[in-house]
Amino acid sequence: MTNPQKTAVIAIGGNSLIKDKQHRTVQDQYQAASKTARHIATMIQQGWNVAIGHGNGPQVGFILRRSELAAHELHEVPLDVCGADTQGAIGYALQQSLYNHFLDMGIDKNVVTVVTQVEVDTGDPAFQNPSKPIGSFMEEDQAMNRRDKDDWNVVEDAGRGWRRVVASPLPTRIVEEVAVKQLMAAGIIVITVGGGGIPVVADADGKLHGVAAVIDKDFASSLLATRLQADVFIISTAVEKVALHFGQPNQQWLDHLTLAEAKAYLAEGTHFAKGSMAPKIQAVINFLEAGGEKAIITDPSNITRALAGETGTVITRE
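Predicted structure:
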């Protein structure tokens, strides 16, 4: 059995909640969350202490769309509040799934979701160059109206219409870090930094205020792993292993990477797609450069096998 003192941070990707466009209902998402939770429960049964981060992109999109459709009758929901809402809903699905798996597996553990704020820097360059599309497509006149009335940043998206874009700043501090550490020290499984955390900024008095931004969930989970001094940082995604030349005839699956190799491949700019694998590799690099020893990238069903060294891509400092 694994040393019960060992800590893992797992960042769950969107595929762990929404499999495809035909399975997006709340019940579909719950079933998908339950499958992923089963693999995490097996890991916990082996003695690991676990903190779980997760994505929320599609779910935030759903809330924004409902808000837009109901705007003639109800107030619209700010982006930071959408993040808080999804932390609760997705946390509930994972929490209940883990609870039920624990019952089946005879595991005496508690699990809790922490609605988590993550501080970002008002001077982050991302605020000067908002690039993360959110919400629905709009006609140009509607986009210009929201720009002028609500101070939105809007862009034309490849001939498909206009969309709102927001900043994607780097996480600098997990506000509820102490609470997460105390819960984990008590042996409680914690779901935290959901969707990258609710982005907040501090004013001159140190008081926090929500901002319209999106924090990359892998970056936030990497920061969490660093602050918890996790023994391993796991990114659960759609593929069993990382590949060079992904999807090409010369595709090459990778069993192991060193920190130096990961940085070199990322710098080449041709191996890892910007919107998918590149931020995951960067999140791993951040963790290892901050003192972490080991990271794993694999899909949910192979988490325990990857921990045993049987599959997945393992990235280490040396």
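Summary: Residues 130-166 form one domain.
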